[in-house]
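Technical annex B. To support the medicinal chemistry partners, we prepared a structural model of the target in complex with manganese (II) ion, based solely on the information shown next.
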Amino acid sequence: MAFELPKLNYSYDALEPHIDARTMEIHHSKHHAGYTSKLNAAIEGTSDEGKSIEDIISGGNLSAGVRNNGGGFYNHTLFWDIMSPNGGGTPTGELASKIDEAFGSFEDFKTKFSNAAATQFGSGWAWLCWNDGKLEVCSTPNQDNPLMSEAGCGGTPILGIDVWEHAYYLNYQNRRPDYINAFFNVVDWNKVAEHMNNAK
Ligand code: MN
């Protein structure tokens, strides 16, 4: 039972002008596809075969192949899922109150998350995580994520932004902060709330 590249719930051009179609196409059909096939190769014939991706990457003592490609598979699957052409705005309900409780206000959360994304040196991700009943922001290098004991930050990711240059360079070049601002126009807060509920 090999992992398969997940289909997007929207077309490659659906997130324009915030994320351009060419970036989406290369990111999904080349980068994410590459992590998927390399993950399958890395686990073939090992005890990881047949496990969920969450079980694989949270198992500790990861080989470089599983850490990089299992992380890449998981991270991008979450990333596509929490974006939508109907995204943007602000969260509601329990997610909104949990954000207020943890960060003071949505604007304060946005600042903290954006700073984590902007200051992640080199390639990596910034995360909003559900950790033991509370929301936290952190960032990780490469394709690490908070499910990995290696990552240095904990909890279950419910929102993530990819700050590898392949995620924004065609449209934004070195202007990572502009890409981070634009990302908030496509975040699907209903999906983020679903991930929070699943993480409980
Ligand atoms: Mn990526």
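Notes passed to the chemistry partners:
The longest helix spans residues 21-43.
The chain has one domain: 19-200.
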